[in-house]
Write a structure and sequence with these properties.
disordered C terminus; about 190 residues; DNA primase DNAg catalytic core, N-terminal domain; 5-stranded antiparallel beta sheet; 6 helices; about 30% helix; DNA Primase, Chain A; elongated; 2 domains; alpha+beta
Length: about 190
């Protein structure tokens, strides 16, 4: 890997993740886009392409996987693949797969809010179900305050590329039906 190639990759990452701190052996630290820690805890090795956040434990084997999982600019993927070769995973374009999304009213539980629905959801997830704050962040557990999933806990599931497969909605209130499948799961249930 030449100096100009290293600089190109570093420029792509700097533009996407913010200015990095340089360490030895090709290592650079960035602000983590997954946990938004106030210190630069996402460590990226430009020589091996491996990356790891020391706070939320997000990690991967290639620069392209980091860009994909953090919604990096699509024009960067071919440049990075050209520099590192085809050894990394092949990019799956949006036209080749169906993109899903969480409910419109989804609010992540790791972002503090001062509402009764937030407090009820957090109490149920942490006290009743025993999830820690790290688990809530790692699995991106959330809840909805309105809409068809109002008052329900939302547990998303992601594939290897970081795209949403489906989500499960669960209510902490026992007088209602306990779970509700997402519309994303219905094609899987009918197969």
């Amino acid at each position: 890997m030449t100096t100009s190639q290293t600089q190109t990759v570093l420029t792509i990452l700097d533009n996407h993740l913010g200015r990095s701190t340089t360490h030895k052996n090709g290592e650079h630290s960035f602000s983590c886009p997954f946990c938004n820690h106030y210190k630069k805890k996402l460590q990226v090795n430009l020589l091996t392409q491996k990356w790891h956040c020391w706070v939320c434990n997000a990690k991967g084997q290639t620069i392209n996987s980091l860009l994909r999982k953090s919604n990096g600019p699509s024009h960067a993927y071919p440049k990075v693949r050209e520099i590192y070769g085809e050894s990394g995973p092949v990019l799956i374009t949006k036209s080749n797969r169906t993109l899903h999304s969480l409910p419109e009213d989804f609010s992540p539980l790791h972002i503090k809010r001062n509402t009764p629905d937030y407090r009820n959801a957090l109490h149920y997830v942490s006290k009743v179900r025993g999830l820690s704050a790290i688990d809530i962040l790692r699995y991106q557990v959330g809840y909805c305050e309105s809409g068809p999933y109002a008052g329900m806990i939302i547990v998303p599931s992601y594939d290897a590329e970081g795209s949403l497969n489906y989500y499960v909605a669960r209510t902490p209130r026992s007088q209602f039906h306990n779970t509700l499948p997402s519309p994303l799961l219905l094609p899987l249930l009918t197969c």
